[in-house]
Design a protein that fits this description.
Blueprint: E1 6-7, H1 10-15, E2 30-32, H2 37-50, E3 54-57, E4 74-77, E5 84-88, E6 93-96, H3 102-109, E7 114-115, H4 126-131, H5 139-142, H6 145-148, E8 149-155, E9 161-165, H7 177-181, E10 190-197, E11 199-200, E12 204-212, H8 215-227, E13 234-238, H9 240-250, E14 259-266, H10 268-284, E15 287-293, H11 296-307, H12 309-316, E16 321-328, H13 334-346, E17 354-357, E18 362-369, H14 374-393, H15 409-431
Parallel strand pairs: 2-4, 3-4
Antiparallel strand pairs: 1-2, 5-6, 6-10, 7-11, 8-9, 8-10, 12-14, 12-15, 13-14, 13-17, 16-18, 17-18
Length: 447
């Protein structure tokens, strides 16, 4: 059926059996490259009959081991299903195949006056972004994938094909199956088509950088900005260590101090008004004044530097690997969580710059470790555990946007409780009774 679009090459299998944070490959037995939903369904039907694991793959930018294949099986690379199916300009929605990347979609939309705002940094596929409920720098204004996915086409574990949702902006028709599959990490079905909300390109966009004497001042500026309802598009926090890394990697010359990257969208007058308001708030909390990036190329350079922060951190400590983690807390607890985390980082011998989408209470540690040093790895693991439990105690979540995968299963149990996880398992068994879809992710496979 697939011919040369089914590969058992060791190199291809290993490439598909690792992600950014899990460099040691756990490859599938073969990698399939379907072109249509019907081909995906055929592959899954065969695997269902044989009890063979199936792992969906986008472009490999996940961070919690979502694409690892510890039990072998078939990896289905959806990257060649990369067509924009429909653009409905008047309704502000688009339908795409799962292999379309967010950058490719925005290039396709460029002449329509529309854009898709969800920006996790990596040029991820939209199917993968839906499967992991991705968000990113624009989430504070435009929401996450959860709010921007209208409908899905999904191949279930037995190879049957279903459609969830419609292009209507609201519905009260039965269970919300679309939300069930968004964030399911390929464990309930394989997404083969996505209908998304898109937005009009704002009349004006301006970005700014503001440095602070201390981390508290930067975080309090974020909290007050959000509580006042100022409609910023992005607010990103980088601590002084991350600024040092970004300066070296992206050839910037920012002051090495806690820093906010901000962006404002709207009319010319609205952007000016909102920027003035935030500048005033920042000044009250020790902000050192705004440096503006008004030209498109300046904004692009600034946000490219932010998106490259993880690579910048790794470059700052050659030979290290990263244990990436993130949490999200209610905005009122953001300062407490970040400052306690910063004190914790300073008390141990682990390099862990802080960066985050703090406008929605979400931040990351990039834990840089020498994996040949067991004591260092263990210190980083313990630091991560303390961070997650701190967030949970503050009413937050163990992951704001990375997903559970294999890395945060123990924390999902603490967050959702035994009853909640048991219900998730029951849903999994109902939709995938043989347990072939991305087994071992979100929670360990049933005995």
């Amino acid at each position: 059926m697939l011919g040369d679009r089914l590969s058992t090459s060791k190199a291809v299998r290993e490439e598909h059996g690792r992600d950014i944070a899990h460099p040691d490959a756990q490859p599938a037995d073969a990698v399939a490259f379907p072109l249509t939903t019907e081909e995906v369904a055929s592959i899954v039907r065969i695997c269902h009959a044989e009890g063979t694991p199936v792992i969906a793959y986008g472009v490999g930018t996940s961070l919690e081991g979502h694409v690892l294949a510890p039990n072998g099986g078939i990896c289905i690379d959806l990257g060649r299903m990369d067509q924009v199916v429909a653009v409905n300009e008047r309704d502000l929605d688009v339908t795409v195949q799962p292999g379309v990347t967010r950058e490719a979609l925005n290039t396709h939309l460029r002449d329509t006056g529309l854009f898709f705002p969800i920006d996790p940094g990596a040029n991820a596929t939209l199917g993968g972004m839906a499967a992991t409920r991705a968000s990113g720098t624009n989430a504070v204004r435009y929401g996450t994938m959860r709010e921007n996915v209208l409908a899905l086409e999904v191949v279930l574990a037995d190879g049957s094909i279903i459609h969830t949702g419609t292009r209507a902006r609201k519905s009260s028709a039965g269970y919300d199956l679309t939300r069930l599959f968004v964030g399911s990490e390929g464990t309930l079905g394989i997404i083969t088509q996505v209908t998304l909300r898109v937005h009009g390109i704002p009349e004006a966009m301006s970005a700014a950088v503001c440095t602070f004497e201390d981390l508290r001042g930067a975080v309090e500026t974020v909290i007050e900005t959000i509580q006042l309802g100022v409609p910023v598009a992005r607010i990103e926090l980088l601590d002084e260590l991350m600024i040092r890394a970004v300066n070296q990697y992206s050839k910037l010359s920012l002051r090495e101090a806690p820093t906010l990257f901000l962006e404002f969208h709207g009319s010319q007058s609205a952007v000016q008004e909102h920027a003035t308001t935030v500048a005033s708030i920042a000044q009250e909390h020790g902000g050192q004044g705004f440096e503006w990036a008004l030209k498109p190329e300046e904004r692009t350079r600034l946000w490219k530097a932010r998106h490259d922060a993880a690579w910048a951190a790794l470059a700052m400590r050659p030979g290290s690997t990263s244990i990436a983690t993130d949490v999200c807390v209610p905005i009122s607890r953001l300062a407490d969580c970040i400052l306690e985390t910063k004190r914790d980082v300073d008390s141990v011998s682990v390099w862990a710059p802080i960066v985050g989408h703090v406008g929605d209470g979400n931040f990351h540690l990039v834990l840089l470790v020498d994996r040949a040093n067991p004591a260092e790895v263990e210190a980083a693991v313990q630091l991560n555990e303390r961070l997650v439990r701190r967030a949970l105690q503050m009413g937050g979540t163990c992951t704001g946007e990375h997903g559970i995968g294999v890395g945060k299963q123990q924390f999902l149990l603490e967050e959702a409780g035994a009853g909640g996880v048991a219900l998730m398992r029951q849903i999994k068994r109902t939709l995938d009774p043989k347990g072939i879809l991305n087994p071992g992710k979100i929670f360990a496979a049933d005995p």
